Amino acid sequence: MIKNFKKDSRKISKKAILSCVVITAMVATSTSVVKAAEINNGMATVSSNEETTNGKYNFIIDEPSKYYDNIKKVEEIAGFKFKVPDFVPAGNSLECFHMRKLSNNDNGIQIFFNNSNSKVSGIKFYALKKDPVNGLKEIEVSKMNSSKDPQVDVEEQTMKLGEINGTSLTMSITRPSEKLSNGLAVGEFKETNKYFIWENDGLYYCISYNLVTKSEDKDSKERLNLSEDTIEKISESIKYPEEVKNVDYSVPNRELSTEVGVMKIYDNEDLEKAKSLLGFNPKLPLKINDDISINDSVVGISGDSDIENNKINYELNSFYSNSNGSITFNASKSSKEYDDIEKNGYFNRENWKTKELMQVKAEKLNISNKEVLKYEEKGIEPEQGSDVSYLWKEDGVYYDVIFFKNIENSDEIIKNFINSKCID
Question: What residue stretch is flagged as signal peptide (predicted)?
Fold first, then answer.
């Protein structure tokens, strides 16, 4: 699936393959990945004053699911103090942290570990304040990337490991087959997880110890199977992060790639880090109108980077809801398309299917006293429809707004992006 998306990098959503969580899920379960905002599992909350409050923590973009690689940041915003394993099986190392908003006053914590054996899923560890079964269901269903409600079946039975009395939970989630608006067919996919759940100092903790996946036309595959002895060792080892000695919870080093986002923007601290990486203060409108608001914003490595020689440039990719469609808003310090259009009146795009070069011509518009380049690209497949893009340069920064599927009134909507201000 990753290879397929590389065929048309302009359509790649860095949201779709941003986080370690999604990458892990794709490798471990063959879950399909789709274009940004093609499917939304919950809208981000924003407000007119560009700041919202979740409990005591202020967010610029309050997504239901947030991904972090810094345990101190997770502790800061979780709203409760939780324990983590001081033992994990050999070959497992920290991948990242996932925090899921379960209600206005309740967050669930999920810790992903990466397995050095690519054929085996890393373990998942959870910390929950309330009802662990519904909490696990909410967290796992949210990652299924389906516009249809998945079927969820659960079965519970008592389970005792050593001196720990707990529960074994089997949860099967079946994502139905569907055809997306871009023509991509997604087959039925079933994932069955087994968890050990127990209570410790007023919180519920869970370990995934068995995982079986099945794609529509393929045989079932067992991705994870921990012995009871291993589960017991993990559950007996939990400690508060400052007490841990045997597991490294520091920020993991990851291979740089233009296909994987570097960080997401949730709060003002993230925004300041993003500005430092980008080298400029970007426009970041949070709400365009009643129908269009931001879902998330990601800093990624731009395509003109020379990773091999450590010459790294960054770009900001923001994703917006739009009735029956989606919008991406990109900002970077360079744009080959813009330069080629200014020079030749067109740029070349490779047809990922035929490998032929397609000449894409643009028209010049004057919007809010700025020269804006507009061009339309038709989908390679008949079902994909057309996308419309607007390009302009402002204060040394190149901005690119792409309307996917729903391109009605795009000439009016684009004015809001162009007239938006940079966040101080």
Answer: 1-36
